[in-house]
Amino acid sequence: MVLLVALALLLGLLLALLLLIPRQHKSGHKGKSHSSLNNSDKASKSFSKTEVSLHNKREDCWIIIKNKVYDVTSYVEEHPGGDAILAHAGDDSTEGFFGPQHATRVFDMIEDFYIGDLEQ
């Protein structure tokens, strides 16, 4: 009987660990963005404002924040502010990003979506 209880506790602990360990999924904010650029690739990639402006839809959404380009397509559906993220799709979102509605965690999250710099 003691062995059965110990086995049940061990299985419960393993199950709890499996549920608590973060898993990477399609959403970009819990992992890296869909691109598999490494840091050296990111540093050398740049986009024109015209190129960014072509990515202005729910299914293809890039934004600019402080002259950095982010592909937030995978986050659009999860954005707590709903479609507000689309207000500046394909354009500069710096002002909205730094608005009072955002918690400080967005400053860490946004780096997962970084794909390059805006050409000057």
From TrEMBL:
SUPFAM superfamilies: Cytochrome b5-like heme/steroid binding domain. Residues 37-51 have a biased composition (Polar residues). It comes from the Eukaryota. The keyword Iron applies. Residues 1-16 form the signal peptide. Belongs to the cytochrome b5 family. PANTHER family: CYTOCHROME B5, CYTOCHROME B5 TYPE B. This is Cytochrome b5 heme-binding domain-containing protein. It comes from Crotalaria pallida.
